[in-house]
Amino acid sequence: MTNTIFKLDSVMKEYKTGDVSVMALRNTTFEIKKGDLVVVLGPSGSGKSTLLNIIGGMDLPTGGKVIFEGENISSYDSKKLALFRRNKIGFVFQFYNLMPNLTARENVEISTEISKNSLNIDEVLDKVGLKDRASHFPAQMSGGEQQRVAIARAVAKNPDILLCDEPTGALDYSTGIKVLELLKDINRTMGKTVIIITHNQPIAQIADKVIKMRSGEITSIYDNPNPVDPQTIEW
Ligand SMILES: Nc1ncnc2c1ncn2[C@@H]1O[C@H](COP(=O)(O)OP(=O)(O)OP(=O)(O)O)[C@@H](O)[C@H]1O
């Protein structure tokens, strides 16, 4: 019995546009343990979004294997990949990507409707501290509140993994810290595996595992024996 949730084995991604080829990921190999909070750290252009798209089942690698709970998702057809995205992954994006014409509650509700194992919407809104804002539209909320709605939307469908792309990138420092605290709380209390992709180095201090990337390659992977409370980090 293994507690590995993701295993990437020599994953490659080559983009070809006409005669031009870009190797966005080379020989990417690592494992992620169930329940870990992982930070993938790298500068712009290092391949973070490419990696996120591949882990999240939005794109396929051009080489290597992506094993999720023992199954090679890189051999899935588009229908199986869609089910994988729906049921296994909750996405959190830098700019929230909420539906502007839906309230906070409705934004969460639509994600629960497409998954088979969803949680109670009001309990999740309560968990992210937005019980009183359920009937507000995105334009009536601050950036931090909108990101909480986005996190609630990702959590409510009860995925195994929360995949977060620069979740604090559009927020001021103290709001960003609060969002990290919420992600850490969801990781610790709900047992969700959380993967945060960022260029913001201090965020690595909150992780159980850090994966550093540069120019499409992993430059280091290490376990952090003493992950800190987001309150204590500064940038
Ligand atoms: N669809 C695509 N077609 C061609 N090249 C691409 C494509 N997507 C990404 N690339 C290239 O692959 C490399 C890695 O890009 P990627 O977006 O994964 O990096 P990143 O670390 O997420 O950067 P950023 O933080 O700026 O978003 C870059 O050189 C980029 O130009």
Notes on the structure:
GO terms for molecular function: ATP binding; ATP hydrolysis activity; transmembrane transporter activity. Pfam families: ABC_tran. This is Phosphonate-transporting ATPase. Belongs to the ABC transporter superfamily. With 235 residues, the protein is of the alpha/beta class. It has one domain: P-loop containing nucleotide triphosphate hydrolases (Rossmann fold), CATH 3.40.50. 29% of the residues lie in helices and 29% in strands. The chain is built from 6 helices and 10 strands. It has helices at 48-55, 78-88, 104-113, 121-127, 143-156, 173-190; strands spanning 4-17, 20-33, 37-41, 63-68, 71-72, 89-92, 161-165, 193-198, 209-214, 217-223. It binds adenosine-5'-triphosphate.
List keywords for this structure.
235 residues, alpha/beta, Rossmann fold, 6 helices, 10 strands, 29% helix, binds adenosine-5'-triphosphate, ATP-binding
How many strands, what sense, and barrel or not for the largest sheet?
6 strands, mixed
Structural class: alpha/beta
CATH class: Alpha Beta
Mean pLDDT: 95
The tally of structural domains comes to 1
How do the strands of the widest beta sheet line up side by side? 6-7-8-3-9-10
The CATH superfamily is identified as P-loop containing nucleotide triphosphate hydrolases
Bound molecules: adenosine-5'-triphosphate
Helix count, DSSP H or I runs of 4 or more residues: 6
Query: Quick one: overall form?
Result: globular
- Find the count of extended strands (DSSP E, 2+ residues): 10
Q: List unreliable stretches of 5+ residues.
A: none
Percent range for β-strand residues: 25-35%
CATH fold call: Rossmann fold
- Span between N and C termini? 40 Å
GO molecular function, one term: ATP binding
Protein name: Phosphonate-transporting ATPase
Keywords: ATP-binding, Hydrolase, Nucleotide-binding, Transport
EC number: 3.6.3.28
